[in-house]
Design goal:
This protein has 82 residues and is of the alpha+beta class. It has one domain. It has 4 helices and 2 strands. The chain is elongated. 5% of the residues are buried.
């Protein structure tokens, strides 16, 4: 295993998931920096899970979502009254 991959593998184990999700943009392309399809796919999978949970929480609090993408959601300024 090369040094760079070993370094990021150790980070994967030692850092909280929400910090790792911010790495999505560094791996979310054909030229991903980790040089590992498995790491690329796992970060994308986890990012999607966090995005869906965030969307669900926002909607539970009554926010109307305008847009959701890989690393953020946009919501209406006010809550929707139910």
């Amino acid at each position: 295993m090369n040094e760079r991959l070993l370094y990021f593998s150790r980070l994967w184990i030692s850092y909280p998931l929400d910090i790792l999700v911010s790495l999505f943009d560094t791996t979310g392309s054909f030229w991903n920096r980790f040089d590992s399809v498995a790491v690329f796919e796992e970060i994308n999978r986890l990012s999607r899970e966090v995005l869906i949970k965030t969307k669900d929480i926002a909607q539970e609090f009554g926010f109307q979502l305008i847009y959701a993408d890989t690393d953020y959601i946009s919501k209406e300024a006010r809550r929707v009254k139910t």
